[in-house]
Design the sequence.
């Protein structure tokens, strides 16, 4: 079986590595000749919308998928005409535009932060009035990890926000004074069966995921059900197949959807060691029509992103339960170069191992001050 | 870090896959252009003793290792002159000759079955008298999975045994009426620290490993200690670094060493999902001087070899806890094509999952009739 993946980042790499034991060969399409995924499997080096590259990409392919959602839609449709593509192209189309994503969620009755489209300076004024301040002005297209965002705390900031971002279509989203950020990784198979990993807690200081705690501490079964209901609505609406990630804000005991990602997700990396079947393997199983594996957790886990520089990462393997994943990427400020998953049978053991790890990690890597599983 | 591996079979493949997350790139040396490992990483296609192939093999290498022990010794020594090689060449040298292996164990005071060298028809007569019948006549060199073996039940069979195998140096080993076969996978780091996985129980109907139960049922702590003491003697005698596998017969409550393998081992495949750190990752960690990871088990596991043909292996993924590992090899009678590891939190759950799996597997795959954890 051959799976084509749009994008050659670390998500593609981990998909490719999960494929080999299943007898699945992944083929990457990515313009960068030294992509992370291309180091571990076949890569077509070419632009996503280059017809020659696409022709080579789909040759002999059983199914195509994505490891990032900003693939040119024309390329996705062109592949979808000749090969199965999962998740469905419609999912990618919706999430590429923050406005259509929010409208899609709203139409399904899924709670989101108040939002309004901003196409002009005048519309920004109206949006600020309707949504309220503080709010976040975001580019509708191609933003991630806090890029293309501007926080409007007061009305005086509208001019700065507009002059910074006003040249592209925008959306204004109310700032939700949330208690914490959670996410749900789900996997839907071709028969409509859906499996859920437990909700996890994510920490994004400086707008980039620094660590994930799995399972999210102090999560009631009703909160998990609330999250799963959101997921089911989205999956049914899109006839979704594959892994779907949903980011939530927890606010006054309820969940608000922040955004969705039609792919494997950074907040699911802990599943490699912390769950019976990883998100990567389950995504491949689902899109290939194979039975989806158990999503049950094994103990608890803390996933720590290694961003910017690595120091001597292999030293950290001395901590029991520490698993290292390097992506083969050159160090650069703000770049995700790898992650460590710290596993333990129970929260107390995880806390103790975190203290061991803290002594070895350089100060540049941000860690939770403590783990409170409540 | 670049690790060179002599041999491109499934063991090399699983080593290479374990390397990527650690930032380790493996390079295979194997004469076969469609080797199992060569499908997942760089391969030098060439004979093990071809100087040109060896020169390309060692270029930029940090350390070399083996995935099978019948590498030509000259090749190992030639690499060892220019690069670190672990496990030490001496270990390979000893195990290549069943006679030197048995003598080595005997000198360390490790119990083995009675044995005697056989270099002539007359020596066979003497050996049968000293060792006793029934006994197994084996080629001293290059035998595995029951190949090059002849069972002598009665004195009348000596002629047949001699005419079948007499053209090569032989060893006669007493047949031990053992209760069961066990094995121990250990890993020794460069600092002399040794970690042990639990003893597992192996089943070899028709002289080829069909399944492994981990941990071995009804194993006393003293049996585990006995096995670990044997391992430590071998490791210290050889200044051993890396994974070492020891196969035992359990006979009248004690352990007798059947043979040792200076490499990762089929009876350790369950560690991929069933232990905190797999034998493959730990072998790489050890030979690269990285900290060795926890060898603690997670629940219990049953590893089933897929031999000869695969049927539709992916169907079996429907059983919770079933993990599939295919080796990318063409089906052929008696060939190991992959394995399934069935994991569960406790023996009862494992037994129930085995019954589910039994209903899906073709009759050609041998399974335990039941799992009795005592």
Sequence:
């Amino acid at each position: 079986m051959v799976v084509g993946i749009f994008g050659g980042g670390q998500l593609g790499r981990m998909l490719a590595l999960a494929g080999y034991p299943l007898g699945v060969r992944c083929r990457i399409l990515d313009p960068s000749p030294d992509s992370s995924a291309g180091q571990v499997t076949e890569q077509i080096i070419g632009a996503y919308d280059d017809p020659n590259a696409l022709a080579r990409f789909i040759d002999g392919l059983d199914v195509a998928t994505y490891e990032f959602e900003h693939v040119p839609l024309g390329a996705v449709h062109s592949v979808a005409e000749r090969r199965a593509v999962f998740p469905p192209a419609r999912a990618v189309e919706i999430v590429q535009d923050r406005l259509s994503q929010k409208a899609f969620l709203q139409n399904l009755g899924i709670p989101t932060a108040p939002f309004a489209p901003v196409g002009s300076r005048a519309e920004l004024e109206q949006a600020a009035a309707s949504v309220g301040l503080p709010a976040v002005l975001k580019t509708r297209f191609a933003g991630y990890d806090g890029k293309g965002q501007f926080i409007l705390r007061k009305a005086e900031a509208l001019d700065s926000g507009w002059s910074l971002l006003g040249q592209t279509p925008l959306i204004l989203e109310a700032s939700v004074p949330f208690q914490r950020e959670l996410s749900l990784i789900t996997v839907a198979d071709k028969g409509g069966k859906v499996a859920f990993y437990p909700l996890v807690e994510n920490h994004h200081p400086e707008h980039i995921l620094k660590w994930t705690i799995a399972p999210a501490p102090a999560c009631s079964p009703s909160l998990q059900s609330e999250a799963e209901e959101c997921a089911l609505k989205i999956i049914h609406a899109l006839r979704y197949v594959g892994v779907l990630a949903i980011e939530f804000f927890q606010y006054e005991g309820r969940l608000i959807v922040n955004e969705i990602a039609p792919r494997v997700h950074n907040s699911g990396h802990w599943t490699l060691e912390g769950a019976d079947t990883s998100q990567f393997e389950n995504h491949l199983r689902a899109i290939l029509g194979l039975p989806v594996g158990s999503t049950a957790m094994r103990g608890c886990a803390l996933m720590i992103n290694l961003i910017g520089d690595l120091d001597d990462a292999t030293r950290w393997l001395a901590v029991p339960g520490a698993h290292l994943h390097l992506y083969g990427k050159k160090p650069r400020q703000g770049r995700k170069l790898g992650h460590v998953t710290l596993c333990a049978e129970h929260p107390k053991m995880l806390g103790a191992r975190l203290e061991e790890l803290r002594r070895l990690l350089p100060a540049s890597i941000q860690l939770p001050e403590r783990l409170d599983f409540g």
Q: What stands out?
A: The longest helix of chain B spans residues 221-238. The first strand of chain B starts at residue 2 and ends at 6. Chain B touches chain A at residues 13, 17, 20-23, 25, 39-40, 276-277, 285, 288, 290-291, 293-294, 298, 313-315, 317-318, 320-326, 328, 338, 343 (CB under 8 Å).
